[in-house]
Amino acid sequence: MTVLVIASSKGGPGKTLVASLIAGSLAAEGLAVAAIDADPTAGLHRWATTTYEGPPFVCHAEADEERLAHLIGSMATSAALVVVDTAGFGNRAATVAMTSADAVLVPMLPGEGDVTEAERTVRLVGALAVAARRDIPARVVLNRQRDTTALSRHAAAEAGSLPRLKTTLSDLVAFGEVSFSGKVPSGGKAGAETFALIRELRELGWLPDARVSSVKTA
Fold first, then answer.
1. pTM of the full structure
2. Are 81 and 1 spatial neighbours (Cβ–Cβ below 8 Å)?
3. For residue 146, what pLDDT is reported?
4. pLDDT in tens, 66-125
5. Residue (of 108, 93, 120, 112) closest to 37 by Cα position
6. 159 or 117, which is more confident
7. What is the Cα–Cα distance from 166 to 146, expressed in whole angstroms?
8. In what helix (H) or strand (E) does residue 35 lie, and over which residues does it extend?
9. CA 201 → CA 157, 197, 206, distances in Å?
10. Ramachandran category for residue 207: left, alpha or beta (phi over 0 → left; psi -120 to 50 → alpha)
11. In angstroms, rounded to a whole number, what is the distance separating the alpha carbons of residues 191 and 186?
12. CA nearest neighbour of 141 among 113, 110, 174
């Protein structure tokens, strides 16, 4: 069982999109996936329970830090993967989630402020790992990248000192449509990037293998 937390101290970098892509992709493989929406806006929970079109997965909305800690522990005993989406600001629920994580993924948009907040989040994960006396790896994933723009190239260069994925997510209409179409991209450039994201996370050991048998999480 793996607990993967999607976190950033800045709002709007694409945490819910990344959580949706991962949860939807693994559910489509037949894996037992549980998602927890710890963001008070509950965007992931609404998407998973009212919009999402695909093999169902369990999704809970829980922003209270004490109940969140118990819920993560409970879900981790019955699901192959628990994906936790956190708020776009520093709060205790996000800290609880990161402390409970096996790994933390930090989405980052192009921009100076975004690089600064990604650095801050990675440092926080490192501090929590020290306090917990165990390794909690963190990686940055660049989102809404436009390789033809100087801004995206500059942001990628500025983030070069951070631990980050090779996979990047482009600024594509297909990704923007996920929130209201309910469909995880399976074709085109968006589908290829989603596949690359899943593959790289698996290579890191952050996601269960597709051959892991599913376990009911109802």
1. 0.92
2. yes
3. 85
4. 999 999 999 999 999 999 999 987 789 999 999 999 999 999 998 888 999 999 999 999
5. 93
6. 117
7. 15
8. strand 33-37
9. 22, 6, 5
10. beta
11. 4
12. 110
Q: Confidence class of residue 211 from pLDDT cuts 50, 70 and 90?
A: low
Q: Which amino acid is at 101?
A: A
Helices (H) and strands (E) in the chain, counts: 8, 6
Other Cβ atoms less than 10 A from the Cβ of 55: the count is: 14
Give the separation between CA 155 and CA 139, rounded to whole angstroms: 15
How far is residue 180's CA from residue 215's CA, in Å, rounded to a whole number?
28
Q: How far apart are CA 136 and CA 121, in angstroms?
A: 12
CA-atom Rg of the chain in angstroms: 16
Rounded Cα–Cα distance for residues 127 and 53 (Å)? 38
For the chain, how many residues are written? 218
Pairing of strands 58-61, 2-6: unpaired
Tens of pLDDT, residue by residue over 22-77, are 999 999 999 999 999 999 999 999 999 999 999 999 999 999 999 999 999 999 99
CATH placement of domain 2-203: 3.40.50.300
